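Project standup — Tuesday

K.O.: blocked on the structure for the chain from last sprint. Re-posting the sequence here as requested.
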Amino acid sequence: MNETNKQITNLLLQLYGMDVSKYDDLFLNKSIQKRITDTRCGSYNEYYTNLEQNIEEAKFFIESLQISHSEFFRNSLTFSVLERILLPSIALQKKCSAQKEIRIWSAACAAGQEAYSLAMLLEEHKNSDYEKFSYRILATDYSEKQVNQAQKGEYPLGALYNLNIKRIKHWLIRNGDTYTIIPTLKENINFSVFDLFGEQLCCPPASIFGDFNLIVCANLLFYYKPEYRKQILKKIANSLAKEGLIIVGEAERDILMNENWYEIFPQSGIFKGIEHR
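H.V.: unblocked you, prediction finished:
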């Protein structure tokens, strides 16, 4: 950790009890520089003094580290594989197994676009399939603010650019400049606050026993130091059903490969444990 990051980390911990040591050094440094610019401080020392004397800025800085950006159908290749191959395959397997429910965990759901994208695919497959199946999506985030936004399911037009016109008309209701997810798409999604670094639970309490067929943890791991990435991956591995899969972001594929996970479709970011290869 460089000296700048170390000073800020120690200050936040000593004065406010806020621990940011788990974040990747490069990400933390960029966040500090951004806050220096946004607060119009003339130097690092000026911003340090501001942070030292202003708990509101400390809270704002902490909040800025909680990455909340998401999109509908964010990675086109990943969602294409899900739509055309994986979800139909999992649905078929469920028809022949004792556990009929498809269980999915969106582990850093932000404002909900990821969870709703998965629900759209599952509902569309149900409507085209001659045999019905059930599913449940657990969508969690560390930020209560983000979870509340996800539950509302309200988005501006600019957030819908990855959705085709057919899906927009079918799954959202327009009210002025706002588009809202229809109630029926929310029925099988449970949104809740969950800390991936919490020591007591390995999965959301609402899931009861984990056993997820699919866990989506995309565009999250690279914000943390390697030892904390390992913590998240261990928690996810313990929550997966046998033959369960994990999805990560495109830039995180190397992290999984280095941790003995096997990418089942090249470049897709969809992995299974090496022991299930």
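K.O.: great, moving the ticket to review. The radius of gyration is 20 Å. The first strand starts at residue 101 and ends at 106.
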